[in-house]
Design brief:
Helices cover 7% and strands 53% of the residues. The protein contains two helices and 15 strands.
Length: 246
């Protein structure tokens, strides 16, 4: 069984255009939506993010203590979609499996003040997601978000004791009006056991064992995180009125 612990560290740089229109930013609101998809048999490889998002790039995950280590099974898919396409995408994800949304509380960041936020992934889930956040602003730099995910993986390999790995990667995403940042491709497999009983005969003591089928299969789930930044700006200061003359 695979357990995944997902940590994100973001540094946000604000847009010069906002300074010109609304004055210096007061902070940043980050809306977060977590989506989990139990993939169907036709989409066992996960969502094809390269065909969906803009600015697509694959992020290989590497060991915290060994930057040369890499396994193609461990990666994230990053990109962006417009706010309009985001609404359509949520509906379309139902076609690749059973989807559930887990909305999170919005995070409000103040300039240069770090903030840690732990996300909820629903009851009974062994996955946890924690965000370490920092908001920075510059009148000269364009808007962007630096994202440094840290993923802790605990998995069992046959009869061997569980092994813990800490995996990391790094990316940057531009912040644009009505743009949603997408982090997908985080998958896990869980062994599922199900017993099927034939009517009546399957309930008989001893003899009923012959009329029961027990099946096992690996259920694959993909977790997707959507980040929706909203700049909170203050109105530009107006010059004081000229002194009145008598």
């Amino acid at each position: 069984m695979l357990r995944i612990f997902f940590f994100l560290f973001l540094t946000v740089f604000d847009s010069p255009a906002i300074f010109a229109q609304q004055g210096p930013p007061e902070g940043l609101a980050l809306d977060i939506n977590v989506v989990q998809i139990v993939l169907n048999d036709e989409h066992r490889d996960g969502v094809d993010w390269e065909a969906i998002v803009s600015d697509f790039h694959m992020l290989p995950l590497k060991k915290e203590d060994n930057s040369f280590w890499m396994d193609k099974r461990y990666h994230l898919s990053a990109g962006t979609v417009s706010a309009e396409d985001y609404a359509v995408l949520l509906d379309a994800l139902d076609t690749v499996g059973k989807m559930s949304q887990i909305p999170q509380d919005s995070v409000h960041l103040t300039v240069d003040e770090p903030l840690a936020a732990t996300l909820s992934l629903g009851e009974g889930k062994e996955q946890t997601v924690r965000l370490g956040l920092r908001f920075a602003s510059s009148a000269n730099a364009g808007p962007s978000i630096t994202i440094d995910p840290t993923i802790g993986v605990i998995f069992k390999d046959g009869g061997k004791p569980p092994v813990a790995l800490t995996l990391k990667t790094h990316t940057q995403a531009a912040v644009k009006d009505n743009t949603v940042i997408v982090l997908g491709g985080l998958t896990e497999e869980t062994e599922i056991t199900k017993t099927h009983k034939f009517p009546i005969l399957g309930n008989l003591p001893l003899v009923g064992l012959v009329f029961r089928n027990q099946g096992r299969w690996m259920q694959k789930t993909e977790t997707v995180i959507f980040l929706i930044p909203r700049v909170e700006a203050v109105a530009a200061q107006q010059p004081p009125p000229p002194p009145q003359t008598q």
